[in-house]
Each structure stands twice: as C-alpha cells, then as structure tokens.
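Predict the 3D structure for this chain.
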Amino acid sequence: MAQIDSFFKFMKEQNASDLHLSTGNPPMLRIHGELVRIDMPALENDQLKALVYEIAPENKIKVYEETGDVDFGYEFPGFARYRANFFNQKVGIAAVFRLIPSKVLTFEDLNLPPVLKRFTMLKKGIVLVTGPTGSGKSTTLAAMVDYANLHRKDHIITIEDPIEFVHRSQQSLINHREVGLHTKSFAAALRGALREDPDIILVGEMRDLETIDLALTAAATGHLVFGTLHTPSAPKTIDRVIDVFPANQQNQIRASLSESLKGVVAQTLLKRIDKPGRCAAIEVLVCDTPIANLIRENKTHQIPGMMQVGKKKGNQQLDDAIMEHMKAGRISPEEAYDKAVDKKKFRVFMKTPPDDWED
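Done. Predicted structure below.
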C-alpha cells in the first residue's frame, strides 16, 4: 500500500471530496465545499514530493518536471479512483486529489430533471453540460452515460483527461480513452473516433477551437456528442462556443450550432442547511426550432425569455431551480442570493439584505 493511501482512507472517513497537499502547509480536505485543515505539521517539499511521486507513473513525473503541472488518474485498488493534479508553487510542489466515486450515481440518486433522459436517447446532435469547476458536471455526465449504457445497444467512446468514472459495458459497448495515455489530444481522439463506428462520444472538456469544431462536426455527421464547458448558464454557453471562432467564421458556426445543439445543462452546487452536504441547482435549455432560430440570428439574449415560456418542453432556468431548493428548506436565502442570476428575486427572503450596489 502506498503511503498516501492512508490520506485517502481518512478522506473517506471525513466524507471529503478533495485532498490538498501543499509545501509549507498542513494537509487539507474539502468537506461539503469548504477547506478544513488536518491536524498535522506543515509538509516539506522533499517529503511531499516523495509522497506523491510514489503513485505517479514515470511519464507523468517527466511531464510535471518539464512543464510544472500534470493531470492523471490514480486508483487505490478495491477502494476508489482519484483525479490527481501536481503543480509547482512559490515554495515547492503542491498536489490536489479529487475523489471519483466507485459507484456511478443514477438519475434517481441525483434527482436530475427527466428531460436529461430524453437527451441521452437522442440519435445525433450535441448536448453540453456546463458549470464552474467542482459543480458536479462529471457526475451528471456519468449518470447520462450509465443510462445510455443500460437502455441503448450502441458504441460509446469517452475521451477524458484523465479517465474519471469507469463504466462496465452492459447493453452498450464502452471504450474509455485517456488523453496523454491512449491518444495525444482531445482533437486527435475525436478525429480517430469518426473512424471507430461510435454512436455516442463523450468529450471530457471542450478546451479549444479545434476540439469544439471537431465535436460539432461529429454531431452534424450523425453522432450524439456529450461535452463540458466552464460556463455559468445556457445562453453564455452558446456565446462561448461561438466566440472561440474567428469573427469571419462565426455566422457559419451559428448556423452549424443551431442545427446540432440539442440541449444545455448548466449546474452549480449549493450548500445545504437541512443536512450536511450540497445539492445541485440545474438550468436546462431544450434547443427546439425557436431557440435554434435565436442562435442562428445572433439573438441569444432573448433565450432566457424563451426558456421561461417553454417550461412544458423541459426548460428550466437556474433561478427557478434555486428558488425550489430554498422554498423546500434545503438551502438558506443567503446561499440562494449568492448563487442566483437575478438576485433581486431573493432579497425579500433575506433577514439582512446586502446594499443595492451588490446586485
């Protein structure tokens, strides 16, 4: 057993999602969204380097020493998987480990909107799951892949950096590919995927123009593509995809996106007050013909209004999801106000509303 595995056992005991190890600081855990120090002495650079190098593949150590940071997956056999990141900081090495649950949570476990099942059963198009880092995007995508795995007889390829949730092939055949280990880049894997007879392609992160362009091409050529972006809302996600491209290509991309985009799921995590933990507030955009026309005509600012009148189709705005959590007593008015888009809606529920200039 690696020396660091004792930290992972302690993580589980404390119900922590992340382990932070940083030269010059004691180890810290993220528990329900907040960092908590472990009662230990500060870590020294050589001590920490020996601790984390013990579990890192040689090629990843080489990348880290050449570039100053690296990502990879680590499995504590029979226990759990972790997404690891090493990086240099002012006084030495630092590392962060994110727990990847061994059990893939289902739609029911996560209380996801039913419309996501419809997205999962589409034959072609692109569905984007977005939100800030640590908002549960990977967990939602894993539930969607799991549902497809159980209900479709198809070929599913996942492209990630690193591989997070591991699915066992059931009704579908699933192949997991890790960037840097099984393929050079997201773009290279996407180009290859088009020759590998996939029905569903999961792109762990759409980081650059080439990857986004290839994902749109795959969606337009009869594949269902799931992807992630670090955007806070559905309309901003559409703007982000278009803005990646040069100005002279944006009209063409709007037309392509209007035809291929089937849905956007934007989510954020909220701190609970009814019990320890967090809950997800989820915004859903269902891309029907009126929405597609707004994308094509560069009128994405009108999408929130269209979502409001299209609730029966499965559309849900983030503030409505937050309001539902607050009225059910799961979150505080202060947490609702902090995470809301239109903060004025939530001021009336607060005992001491902040000054108007903060709206």
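The chain has two domains: 5-100, 107-316.
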